[in-house]
Design a protein that fits this description.
By secondary structure, the protein is of the alpha+beta class. The chain has 2 domains: 78 residues, Herpes Virus-1, CATH 3.30.40.10; 83 residues, Herpes Virus-1 (2-Layer Sandwich). The chain contains 4 helices and 6 strands. The protein has a 4-stranded antiparallel sheet, covered by helices on one side. Strands 5-6 form a two-stranded antiparallel ribbon. The longest helix has 32 residues. This is PHD and RING finger domain-containing protein 1.
Length: 189
């Protein structure tokens, strides 16, 4: 029998069932998979989902304030035992703040400046920054991913060729602009 068709007799993970054989939800938290009776209260969301421990849902809200099941935003969590409501901060704002803090910590490897971040390319391999004008191009290359000189060497030939072509296009614009400025100077004389 081919190896891929053999039944795996190795160690099995002991993951508790969430549904019975008929597809009905068991009384388990869908975050921690523990029996909900073990916990003090259910967490209830405005979307109507309540298959979570209150404590699990509260911890979840520190990372994301979207329902784990339907992805709808929530700003409060109801407690089934006390009927109290816990207000939740918008975690998207926290993520934006962390992103801004991260971006502001990146500087250009060539010139050492963290200014003009609208011209700063960040390598998708090593997260180092490079101003477009410090590496001889006039614009951000039209690429899904951009790699610095060191990281591009680890990529496939196709990726290297695509990036090289796009970098040449971005560099050609500099030469075109220089030629236009020279012509304008001649015309203005």
């Amino acid at each position: 029998m081919p190896k891929r068709l053999r039944k795996n007799t190795g160690p099995r993970l002991n993951i508790p069932k969430v549904c019975d054989n008929n597809g009905n939800l068991l009384n388990r938290c869908l975050i921690c998979l523990e029996s909900i009776e073990k916990h003090s209260a259910l967490g209830i969301l405005n979307c109507g989902h309540n298959q979570f421990c209150f404590s699990c849902l509260y911890e979840w809200s520190k990372v994301s304030n979207k329902c784990p099941l339907c992805n709808l935003k929530f700003n409060e969590i109801g407690n089934s035992k006390t009927s109290e409501v816990a207000l939740v901060e918008n975690s998207d704002k926290l993520i934006e703040d962390l992103y801004e803090e991260y971006i502001s910590s990146i500087f250009c490897i060539r010139c050492g400046s963290d200014q003009q971040d609208e011209f700063l390319l960040i390598c998708d391999g090593c997260d180092q920054g490079f101003h477009t004008f410090c590496i001889g191009i006039n614009r951000i290359p039209d690429l899904e991913e951009w790699f610095c000189h060191d990281c591009i060497l680890e990529k496939s030939t196709e990726v290297r060729k695509n990036q090289w072509r796009e970098m040449e296009k971005a560099a050609d614009q500099i030469e075109e602009e220089k030629a236009r400025k020279r012509l304008k100077k001649l015309v203005d004389m």
